[in-house]
Specification:
2 domains
Length: about 350
């Protein structure tokens, strides 16, 4: 029986007690202090409760995310038009990974920002953010057959212009979408998502309807994938080390899925800043039995109690996730997404950004 030592919302696994008996209070206290010291000495990342760096989250530096459509795209002002331009006739585009995605009259993808207010509707994307994510004008917006016109509305922005809302959410284009149908903005910063038919984040209904592969919520996702590690496969070990041809040794779960760290999380106090719609793209890895590891030190394994009451695996005090865009064992499509998500090495460190 594996006993758990608890401190500040986390539990360190990997310590066994004879005959399943719990150690005395003094021993547990000492173990908790050791865990605290170990995690407190880590590279802590973003301060607890801090916001994501806005330039990166907004995509100002050109980070388009990986795994959904082509990365890159045009410079701001090219491709998806800026300047609060009219929406035209909204329609649905069938993306191979996300399913039905809402587009404007020219075929460019529309996006929602999870930080915006919804009751009442309010756009919090202004200044440099609005240059990267041009708001869509509500003027003359119509819908194609099959779409519900009652979902459309408007919100008055700080500059007095009128912005289109869909399902109560302000909608935007992404300056890095160079061509109609591009979805480069989906998942940027864990706060930007292509809009589905009813204003929801695109892909959510599809993800919920798919059978899971053993993830925390029993759900699996869709998306493009990076290059698979050589010989990668589902091993059955709770955690194993696979040799990626570019990244070197990285950690995979029992299904062969690459595990990732989020640089906006903190190692101590251990906090996950991936919440809300971020969890549609990045799934918290479920805790594992420390006895079922292959190549990973059990002393590095711990558990985070998430705010929703679920538990998440942590490696070297960092919460870890799997990426819904990885569709085959060994895929690394989430690596270096937005410069914030990185595959995890056996030591719990970030794999090289290459």
């Amino acid at each position: 029986m594996i006993a758990s030592e608890e401190t500040a919302g986390s539990r360190r696994l990997g310590h066994r007690f004879p005959n399943g008996r719990r150690a005395g209070a003094a021993a547990l206290a000492a173990a908790a202090l050791l865990l605290t010291a170990a995690c407190a000495d880590r590279d802590r990342g973003a301060p607890a409760g801090s916001a994501v760096d806005l330039d990166t989250a907004y995509g100002v530096d050109g980070f388009a995310g990986e795994g959904y459509g082509d990365t890159g795209g045009g410079a701001a002002g090219d491709g998806a038009d800026g300047g609060n331009s009219p929406a035209g006739q909204l329609a649905l585009h069938e993306d191979p990974e996300l399913g039905a995605v809402l587009t404007d009259g020219e075929g460019f993808t529309l996006y929602r920002f999870e930080e915006d207010g919804t009751d009442p509707a309010q756009s919090l994307c202004v200044g440099a953010c609005a240059s990267a994510w041009p708001p869509v004008s509500a003027a003359d917006a119509t819908v194609a057959d099959g779409l519900d016109v009652s979902l459309l509305g408007e919100v008055i922005r700080q500059d007095g212009t009128s912005q289109l809302t869909v399902g109560g959410r302000p909608v935007y284009r992404y300056s890095q979408d160079a061509l109609p149908g591009d979805v480069n903005g989906h998942g940027v910063g864990g706060t930007w998502y292509a809009v589905g038919p009813e204003g929801e984040p695109a892909g959510r209904a599809r993800n919920a309807g798919l059978a899971g592969q053993g993830g925390q919520d029993g759900q699996d996702g869709q998306g493009g994938a990076g290059e698979a590690a050589a010989g990668a496969q589902a091993t059955g070990a709770a955690l194993s080390v696979v040799q990626d041809p570019v990244l070197g040794p990285i950690v995979a779960d029992a299904q062969g899925r690459t595990l990732y760290r989020f640089t906006q999380d903190t190692a101590w106090p251990m906090v996950s800043h991936c919440t809300g719609a971020c969890l549609d793209v990045w799934k918290p890895a479920a805790p594992v039995d420390a006895a079922g590891l292959d190549g990973v030190d059990p002393e590095l394994i711990s558990v985070l109690d998430r705010p929703d009451g679920t538990e998440q695996l942590a490696i070297d005090c960092w919460p870890v996730y799997w990426y819904t865009g990885d569709t085959s064992p060994g895929d690394t499509g989430g690596h270096n997404a937005q410069g914030m998500w990185f595959a995890v090495t056996p030591e719990g460190k970030k794999a090289p950004a290459a």
